[in-house]
Amino acid sequence: QKEPHGAAFLELLGLPYTGNSPLPLSVCNNKALTKHLLSSFSIPTPAFRLYSHSRNGRPGLRFPLIVKPACEDGSAGITEDSVVDDPKALRRRIDHVVGFYRQEALVEEYVGGREFNVAVLGNGTRDDPFRALPPAELVYRNRQWRVCSFESKWDHRHPAYQEIAAECPARIPESLRDRLRRLAIRCAEGFQLCGYARVDFRMGARGKLYVLEVNPNPDISSNAGLARAARTAGLSYESLIGEILRLGLARGPR
Would strands 105-109 and 195-203 be described as parallel, antiparallel, or unpaired? Predict the structure, then answer.
């Protein structure tokens, strides 16, 4: 992952740039470190363990579990097989992730409720405070899918690509909308984000929200989620890009 290197190079040159600084770009790519920090901020995140190889016995977590590469993004390494229901399947999936991706496997308790994401704009300063855009929901039109996998995001030939779709604004009560926004801004403050970012959530039992990931470098193309949320908030795509540029210039060279 070279994103932090690009930002660090621009900082060494004293040039302003858009988006997040090297620190959150580095930290948030490490899923386990992200979850440790979320817990330290008292932000709910699913219980997890980190594995460098498979082990016998139960991991001290409640099945079903989901197994992910510890340092990937864009749902790389996440398929329907990532959700496991017993120790045998868990060991098999850990071995696959460690062997194929050459990194540790993050194993966390699978939260199977509704899935949301919230985009955030701002620098976290007095002049440019963080503001959350309208929440979006990933709607699963077919119950055979349990996760937003790599295929559902990037492979238009895969059935999940058509059957898992974002709906923005999410059709939710105002109270839930406020909870999502508050948690997203708490993440932005805790991780010292700037410019633009996205926070991913899953809802558990009795409506409890869990933060799955903090994404400091989400897709900003015109058909992606950030632009969709901006349009819902009344910002055209051109205005969104202009705002991202303004926020980068306002922060200035470091």
Answer: unpaired
Q: What tens digit of pLDDT does each residue of 61-106 get?
A: 999 999 999 998 877 888 888 999 999 999 999 999 999 999 999 9
State the Cα–Cα distance between residues 65 and 61, nearest whole angstrom.
Answer: 8
Q: Is the dihedral of CA 109, 113, 115, 116 positive or negative?
A: negative
| Sign of the C-alpha dihedral computed for residues 183, 161, 163 and 68 taken in this order | negative
Q: What is the dihedral of CA 66, 44, 25, 32, to 10 degrees?
A: -50
Helix, strand, or coil (residue 17) = coil
Q: Residue 164 has what pLDDT?
A: 76
Rounded distance between C-alpha atoms, residue 41 and residue 208, angstroms: 16
pLDDT digits over 162-174, tens only? Answer: 777 889 999 999 9
What whole-number distance in Å separates Cα of residue 47 and Cα of residue 27?
19
Which residues on adjacent β-strands are paired with residue 109? 65
Q: Is 144 or 170 the better-scoring residue by pLDDT?
A: 170
CA dihedral over 198, 102, 44, 204, signed as positive or negative: positive
Query: Which pair of structure tokens corresponds to residue 6?
Result: 């690009």
Between CA 37 and CA 196 the distance in angstroms is: 20
Please name the residues in contact with 24: beta carbons below 8 A apart, sequence gap of 6 or more: 191, 192, 193, 194, 197, 214, 216
